[in-house]
């Protein structure tokens, strides 16, 4: 179990709070609007109304006690920058700030953010990849050009084994899982035979996986 502080409860902050709660984490939330806090009370151990650009408010939260502090202020970049900077000055262990533009990210990183996230951009990237091909069902970017795709097997793979297709040598990718009506099977052996209707979890470099995706 980890502890998180979430500052700013717009759409992203609210969803983040609910999702972190499902994973049995301890969460404290802060926002200037009481109605936003009320909706999330079932998910948190503590909630506070306050303006976190005020150093006294931030100091009262004990920011150094949290594993991660999230700054999810989306509509006021100046406030986001001030809060990010003050969190670090007050001893926050790890600060993750939300950005909408690259220029914002640069300033946030220079002023205390350990990491910057782009929720809108990341979702758009994922949707673009998924809908650019007929048989891409999900997509996770791992960094440094590597990704995991959930795809259908190529038609010419059906009825043949992983070893026969020689996926790793031919496409420089790895089959790390197979999903069907019975659930997800991880790390299928070389003798596994591809079947119609199943989904493959394929991991590799983006450029290599795209060679498979183009054939779907």
What characterizes the major β-sheet?
6 strands, parallel
What's the average pLDDT? Answer: 92
Secondary structure: helix percent? 25-40%
- Derived structural class: alpha/beta
Q: N-to-C SSE series? A: EHEHEHEHEHEHEEHHEEEH
Described by the principal axes of the CA atoms, the overall outline is elongated
- Could you tell me the strand content as a percent range? 25-35%
Output the number of helix runs: 9
Distance between the termini: 41 Å
Number of strands: 11
Unreliable stretches = none
Strand order of the largest sheet: 3-2-1-4-5-6
Q: Work out the radius of gyration.
A: 22 Å
Short description:
This protein is of the alpha/beta class.
Give structural notes.
There is one protein chain. This protein has helices at 11-22, 34-40, 55-60, 77-89, 102-110, 119-131, 162-165, 167-171, 206-213, and strands at 3-7, 26-31, 46-49, 68-71, 95-98, 115-117, 136-143, 146-151, 173-180, 183-186, 199-205. It is an alpha/beta fold and 216 residues long. The strands form 2 sheets. A 6-stranded parallel sheet has the order 3-2-1-4-5-6, sandwiched between helices. A 5-stranded antiparallel sheet has the order 7-8-11-9-10. The protein is elongated, with a radius of gyration of 22 Å. The chain starts with a strand and ends with a helix. The model has no long low-confidence stretch (mean pLDDT 92).
Offer a few descriptive terms.
single chain, 216 residues, alpha/beta, 6-stranded parallel β-sheet, 9 helices, 36% helix, 27% strand, elongated
